[in-house]
């Protein structure tokens, strides 16, 4: 009897290699029936942009990690590009512990990032539907999903933005109630503002306006975000009607001067104005911070926010580890076959 | 208050789930208690300071419950229900039965007048509490200090909306209290004039909140200024009512 896991993740390989081993859902589905030919009684495969893992259980043969790794590499035809040394292999009690660490975000590159959870769930569901997952995998993955849920409910390890663009969204959500009723003006077309625009679009922001000193660039970004363009020499007059301004132009002096902001504030019928200055040099006069209902932030602030969120997540690690340890102890107490499977094998 | 605290500070999922239901249960129990007292002593439970404090605790909790339902934001409950808790604690320690109460205190209009006034002042207190929470969050966001307040409180716009609901409720209840008082005064005290200091004080506070509501609706007041004004209005209301009660002798000293 043996429980094993092989896979590739940020611990063992660079991002490019991990991407090479990515299996789409259709590929996973077609792969599952072939596991039986390796002597695997039960198996689950899940794959995301950050990791690919194969969980296998056999009640008859000792599973060889090398053959499982070879199986994955062969199926993706990457034998030449991704060496077996970039894969990891685990067995016994470590397998269950590893799965719980992955599901709770403890094993993620950014602690608490549980984006892989949907892949774990769909991987297990596919194995279940194709009859490859039996009672062992069911118990293991049920425990992992429950543990992840418990972690989400009782700790804040997955809370808080961990990228600059999501930090911008987080800040906006701490100021505004309903982003669907808000209007955003993007000045510039850099990668960061585009990413922020897309993040805000995902949250259903009401309307997008884009302006740029190159009308062509403004048009491209407006099309990407589903917004409208405003001529660059006229955007200042529209300030009183917008709620959020994202600015990222290489320009000096300030694109929004003290007088522009004062005029906009005076003519405003709306509530608060959130300004995000991502330009180098600065696009917006820092005087804006002195105005009562104007909030001005720059890239440094967003980076600080991300840093604080990551620190807060790290502080939650012991609580999550306690949950994982508790679940593993419960699994071990549940008797055969777990007490046998939990024995580490040499 | 305990479950709201557990939910706010510890993020406990069960506390998040049950806190609003707990509030409803407590409010129902408190209402039954006040009703039982009314029936037992044949007068509304507003004849002594501990009774008034119990009514105030109930009013604060009811007003908060209404605001919570309307805004769908439950994170501020701990702060507001703390006020109600201390009112009720004081009331529970010092409450006593009043075997003899003046006849006018048994009047229906008296009950309506006092209940509305207490609900109005409870709403004023809550609006100030929301004003304070708004300012705390505002300063954290402005100063780029992303601490517990930033993490846990609802966003600035929601707090502003909750404050405005409280102000509106304060205005409505004070309107009802003044109307009931004006109807009831000649019935209970035929010789008294409307130039009573407490009546004038309450009418001034009512007017102040009325002007505040119109200013907000016309976009003249918003955000931080509105919150500062609502805290100032609460302080003015509390100070003027205390001064009137301490230094003016009038028919409004019911007990």
In terms of topology, how is this protein built?
The complex is a heterodimer of chains A (346) and B (255).
Chain A: E1 2-8, H1 15-20, H2 25-31, E2 42-47, E3 52-58, H3 65-75, E4 88-91, H4 93-104, H5 117-129, H6 135-154, H7 164-175, E5 183-188, H8 191-202, E6 207-211, H9 215-225, E7 228-229, E8 244-248, H10 258-266, E9 273-277, E10 294-298, H11 299-315, H12 317-333, H13 338-341
Parallel strand pairs in A: 5-6, 5-8, 6-7, 8-9, 9-10
Antiparallel strand pairs in A: 1-3, 1-4, 2-3
Helix pairs in contact in A: 4-6, 4-12, 5-6, 6-12, 7-8, 7-11
Chain B: H1 2-10, H2 13-41, H3 49-71, H4 77-94, H5 108-142, H6 148-152, H7 156-188, H8 197-217, H9 223-247
Helix pairs in contact in B: 1-2, 1-4, 2-3, 3-4, 3-5, 3-7, 5-7, 5-9, 7-8, 7-9, 8-9
- The percent range for strand residues of chain B is under 5%
The shape of chain A, in one word, is: elongated
Uncertain regions of chain B: pLDDT < 50 for 5+ in a row?
none
End-to-end separation of chain B: 31 Å
Task: Report the CATH C-level class of the largest domain in chain A.
Answer: Alpha Beta
Helicity range of the residues of chain A?
Answer: 40-55%
In what order do the strands lie side by side in the largest sheet of chain A?
7-6-5-8-9-10
Query: Fraction of residues of chain B in helices?
Result: over 70%
How many domains is the backbone of chain A divided into?
Answer: 2
**Largest β-sheet summary of chain A:** 6 strands, parallel
User: So what's the overall shape of chain B?
Assistant: globular
**Quaternary status of these chains?**
heterodimer
Total number of strands of chain A: 10
The chain-level structural class of chain A is alpha/beta
């Amino acid at each position: 009897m043996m429980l094993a896991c092989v896979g590739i993740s940020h611990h063992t390989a660079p991002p490019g290699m991990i991407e090479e081993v990515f299996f789409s859902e259709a590929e996973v589905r077609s792969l599952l029936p072939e596991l039986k030919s390796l002597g695997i009684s039960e198996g689950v495969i899940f794959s995301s942009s950050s990791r690919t893992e194969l969980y296998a259980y056999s009640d008859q043969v000792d599973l060889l990690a090398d053959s499982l790794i070879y199986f994955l590499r062969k199926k993706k035809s990457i034998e030449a590009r991704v060496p077996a040394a970039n894969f990891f292999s685990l067995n016994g009690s470590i397998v269950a512990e590893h799965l719980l660490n992955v599901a709770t975000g403890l094993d993620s590159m950014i602690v608490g990032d549980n984006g892989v959870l949907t892949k774990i769930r769909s991987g297990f569901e596919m194995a279940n539907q194709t009859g490859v997952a039996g009672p062992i995998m069911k118990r293991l993955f049920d425990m992992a999903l429950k543990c992840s849920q418990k972690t989400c409910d009782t700790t804040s390890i997955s809370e808080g933005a961990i990228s600059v663009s999501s930090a911008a969204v987080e800040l906006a959500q701490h100021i505004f109630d309903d982003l669907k009723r808000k209007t955003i003006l993007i000045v510039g077309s850099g990668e960061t503002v585009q990413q922020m625009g897309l993040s805000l679009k995902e949250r259903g922001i009401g309307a997008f306006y884009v302006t740029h000193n190159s009308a062509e660039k403004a048009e491209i970004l407006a099309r990407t975000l589903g917004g409208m363009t405003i001529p660059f020499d006229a955007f200042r007059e529209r300030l009183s009607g917008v709620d959020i301004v994202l600015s990222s132009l290489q320009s000096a002096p300030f694109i929004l001067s003290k007088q522009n902001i004062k005029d906009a504030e005076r003519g405003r019928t709306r509530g608060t104005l959130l300004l995000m200055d991502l330009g180098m040099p600065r696009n917006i006069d820092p005087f804006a911070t002195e105005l009562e209902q104007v909030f001005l932030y720059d890239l440094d602030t967003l980076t600080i926010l991300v840093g604080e969120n990551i620190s807060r997540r790290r502080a939650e690690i012991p609580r999550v580890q306690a949950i994982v340890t508790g679940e593993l102890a419960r699994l071990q107490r549940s008797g055969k076959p777990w007490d046998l499977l939990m024995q580490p094998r040499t | 208050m305990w479950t709201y605290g557990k939910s706010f500070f510890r993020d406990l999922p069960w506390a998040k789930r049950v806190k609003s239901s707990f509030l409803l249960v407590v409010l129902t129990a408190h209402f039954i208690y006040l009703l039982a007292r009314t029936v037992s002593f044949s007068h509304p439970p507003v004849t002594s300071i501990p009774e008034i404090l119990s009514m105030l605790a109930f009013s604060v909790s009811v007003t908060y419950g209404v605001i919570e339902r309307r805004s769908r934001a439950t994170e501020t409950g701990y702060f507001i229900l703390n006020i109600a808790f201390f009112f009720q604690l004081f009331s529970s320690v010092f409450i006593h039965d009043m075997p003899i109460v003046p006849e006018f205190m048994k009047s229906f209009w008296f009950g309506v007048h006092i209940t509305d006034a207490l609900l109005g002042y409870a709403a004023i207190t809550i609006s100030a509490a929301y004003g304070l929470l708004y300012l705390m969050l505002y300063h954290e966001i402005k100063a780029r200090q992303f601490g517990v307040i930033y993490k846990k409180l609802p966003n600035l716009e929601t707090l502003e909306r909750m404050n405005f609901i409280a102000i509106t409720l304060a205005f409505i209840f004070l309107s009802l209290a003044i109307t009931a008082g004006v109807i009831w005064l000649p019935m209970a005290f035929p010789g008294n004039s409307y130039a009573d200091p407490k009546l004038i004080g309450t009418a001034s506070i009512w007017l102040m909140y009325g002007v505040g509501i119109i200013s907000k609706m016309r976009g003249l007041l918003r955000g931080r200024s509105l919150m500062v004004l609502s805290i100032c209005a609460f302080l003015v209301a509390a100070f003027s009512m205390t001064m009137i009660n301490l230094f003016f002798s009038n028919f409004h000293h019911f007990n």
